[in-house]
Write a sequence for this structure.
């Protein structure tokens, strides 16, 4: 008997974990996840977009339009920053971060400052915005490698039916 051939690559596996983390987000419009991995393919941390601890998901606004004070943009912590902050005291120097959506300029700063050396992303749908252009400018200046992943599969089914285990 030979080994199974249809297994996930490391990149697909870690992007899958980032995507699964995104399902924890309560944002009604955009769900983003992040997974930070070291050079030994060990997960260092994960995160998803949401409000900071102690800020109720029911009391803070999820609106996208209006004055900034009454929109989610003044309060939401992005997946990348959450993943960096969720890492408790371990160096992220030389790690890779897997993200569903290309990082904004604020997250780019945190990624660079934490020592992460590669950003692996699935979507770059805001590529033409000034903040994404600023992210790329900083990443290039800091020597952070940018890798757009192209998974072999469009989806992976997670089945919680214990009779199939």
């Amino acid at each position: 008997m030979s080994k199974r051939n249809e297994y996930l690559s490391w990149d697909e596996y870690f992007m899958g974990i980032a995507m699964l983390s995104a399902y924890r987000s309560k944002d009604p419009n955009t769900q983003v996840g992040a997974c930070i991995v070291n050079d030994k393919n060990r997960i260092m941390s994960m995160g998803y977009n949401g409000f900071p601890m102690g800020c109720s998901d029911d009391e803070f606004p999820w609106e996208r339009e209006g004055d900034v004070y009454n929109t989610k943009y003044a309060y939401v912590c992005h997946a990348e920053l959450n993943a960096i902050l969720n890492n408790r005291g371990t160096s992220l120097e030389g790690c890779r971060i897997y993200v569903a959506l290309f990082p904004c300029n604020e997250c780019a700063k945190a990624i660079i400052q934490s020592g992460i050396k590669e950003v692996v992303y699935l979507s770059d749908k805001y590529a033409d915005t000034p903040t994404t252009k600023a992210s790329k400018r900083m990443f290039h200046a800091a020597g952070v490698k940018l890798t757009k992943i192209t998974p072999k599969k469009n989806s992976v089914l997670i089945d919680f039916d214990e009779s199939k285990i």
